[in-house]
Amino acid sequence: MTREGIIARLKANAEAERRVRRGTGVHRRGDHDMNTDDMRHPGPLTPAAVLVPLVDRAGGMTVLLTERNANLSDHAGQVSFPGGRIEARDATPEAAALREAFEEVGLPHERVEPIGHLDDYETRTGFLVHPIVGIVTPPFPVKPDPSEVALVFEVPLAFVLDRRNHRRERRLFKGRERVFYVLPYDAHYIWGATASMLVNLCDVLIG
């Protein structure tokens, strides 16, 4: 998919979301989508933002992801987008996503062109995540923050857009079965909120 095609699809998605906001209310995805509503966090939710970085490689677009350190208290060892809580100094979710991407992996703001966003996402752990999509122009440095990030890697966008790679798995959580998306890529186990946002990206770009 071309850069122009991605931008056009995201603009169309933004317009569709504006219609939803004017009508029945804000559409949010979340961990509860494939489960029951009682898996939703009772609130209040903590605002957060992530950058969904689409790297404009000569051989085709890729998605940049991180693997979190195994010793972190939250989401240890999981694959995620660069991101975190929206702080008082952040004027917008976009500003928060860009700040976090620089702090976590050293991605310079000037190498990122924010082009739109995906659906807001509620996590079971109590965050309301705003996924900001940005096109990243190489070359750019990769300097992971060792206190948070164990690994930075890229997945071909073509892999993400192939629905044959979207698996649903089940796991017992506190005595109850939970259903979630998994996109296994090489040795990487991409699951949970990150996998669901990648499925949302696929929904937006190819329908």
Describe it for me?
- The protein is built from 4 helices and 12 strands, in the order αβββββαββββαβββα.
- With 207 residues, it is an alpha+beta fold.
- The two termini are 13 Å apart.
- Strands 1, 2, 3, 4, 5, 6, 7, 8 and 9 form a 9-stranded mixed beta sheet that branches. It has a 3-stranded antiparallel beta sheet with strand order 10-11-12.
- The protein is 25% helix and 37% strand.
- Strand 2 and strand 3 form a beta hairpin.
- 34% of the residues are buried.
- The longest helix has 20 residues, at 3-22.
- The protein has a domain at 3-21 and 42-159: Alpha-Beta Complex (Nucleoside Triphosphate Pyrophosphohydrolase), CATH 3.90.79.10.
The helix-and-strand class reads alpha+beta
Number of helices: 4
Q: Say what the CATH topology of the domain at 3-21 and 42-159 is.
A: Nucleoside Triphosphate Pyrophosphohydrolase
What is the H level of CATH, i.e. the homologous superfamily of the domain at 3-21 and 42-159?
Answer: Nucleoside Triphosphate Pyrophosphohydrolase
Q: What is the beta-strand fraction?
A: 35-45%
Which sheet architecture does the biggest sheet show?
9 strands, mixed
Estimate the global geometry from the Cα principal axes.
Answer: globular
Q: How much is the radius of gyration in Å?
A: 16 Å
Q: What is the C-level CATH assignment of the domain at 3-21 and 42-159?
A: Alpha Beta
CATH architecture of the domain at 3-21 and 42-159: Alpha-Beta Complex
Oligomeric status: single chain
Runs in which pLDDT lies below 50 for 5 or more consecutive residues are none
H and E string: HEEEEEHEEEEHEEEH
Helix content: 25-40%
What value does the average pLDDT take? Answer: 89
Count of extended strands: 12
Rounded to the nearest angstrom, the distance between the terminal CA atoms is: 13 Å
